[in-house]
Amino acid sequence: MQTTPRVIILVLNWNGWHDTLDCLASLYAGSYRDFQVVLIDNASEDASLQRIREWAERGAAPAPPPGHAAASAPLPYLEYDRTTAEAGGIPEREARLAGELPTGVSHPLVIIQSGGNLGFAGGNNVGLRYAGRRGAEYVLLLNNDASMRSAEALGHLVRFLELTPRAGACGARLFYPDGAPQICYGNFPAPGRALAYLFPVYKLLPGVLFRTARRSNVVPDASCTEPLAVDYPSGACLLVRSRAIAQVGLLDERFFMYAEETDWCLRLRRQGWDSYYVPQSEVVHKGGGSSGTSGEPLNRRFTESLFKYYAKHFSPGAFRLVAAGYLVRSLYGIAHWSLRARLVSSSERGLMRARARYWRACLELAAGALLAPSGAGTGGSEALLPGREPS
């Protein structure tokens, strides 16, 4: 009898139970069966845990995506605190629930209370420690505001990794709820790309000169229908080989939100693993489901994570060059948007001031980087190798 690889699916929730239930419904309606969902709750304050328990006990899901059938039988679940989960849970309890599973469900739902808002990396690391002790061949990191667009979405990712031994990770084709394509993968940050973003003088030159340039973030063309080797797939839906995780370590928790999958895939690359974009797997991603924020705070978090990435992976000289670029660009941005705020109508003034505040935040980051002692804030991923925890 042919067996399928076991997949542990990590879904991180923080004050987003509406999206989370849609995500869970799409997973249990899929055609790939040998998976276990591990729901990590980062100390939600919106009754998320109660809502998720009620959903599992009722066996009634929100309206599933087109082509999916909603489950009707109760779904057995177990709850662990962080310490128990990171030790691998209680396998005996999970085994006892095997006889209560609905048809087509291979494993009970596991709910982990992390005990605090640990961020994307910290929360998922709790799940990764659990998964590492349970022997699954693959781990899927899936945003709680993402759902499978088709029943075969997970199966496509698993089959690709099964057929591609050197692939350590792969990601899906992402769509917005209205069907518009979304950024699916990117190229590793580099000093030149960072400076081109800050000072886009290339826009004044003929486009033919940059025809082969690699963009930081890519929305794939619809003509791309075969798997493609990329620097890093989007972390909204990222399937990773457990053997690769054991080699490179967990997510770096210095990245509270954003850039953690970029850093992870770079570490995979340095250990000889490839990453791929798999367009046959289609996923709907709303965006912002577990961030709990948008606009100005989100932009600041993103830039903070970029600076941490630059400090970790750029040479000291390149890091200081990029920081100097941010300092100069920030001074211009503050002056430009502050002046615009004085000239526009009151209805637009708030947006202009928010942009000026963003550049003030960038100025603080750049000044801090330039004033720090040489080498401060940098560090390789040696602290993340197997057997050691992220700092």
From TrEMBL:
What keywords were assigned to this record? Transferase
* Gene Ontology MF term list: transferase activity
SUPFAM superfamilies given in the database record: Nucleotide-diphospho-sugar transferases (SSF53448)
Is-annotated flag, keyword Oxidoreductase? Answer: no
Q: Which domain of life is it from?
A: Bacteria
Query: What's the protein name?
Result: Rhamnosyltransferase
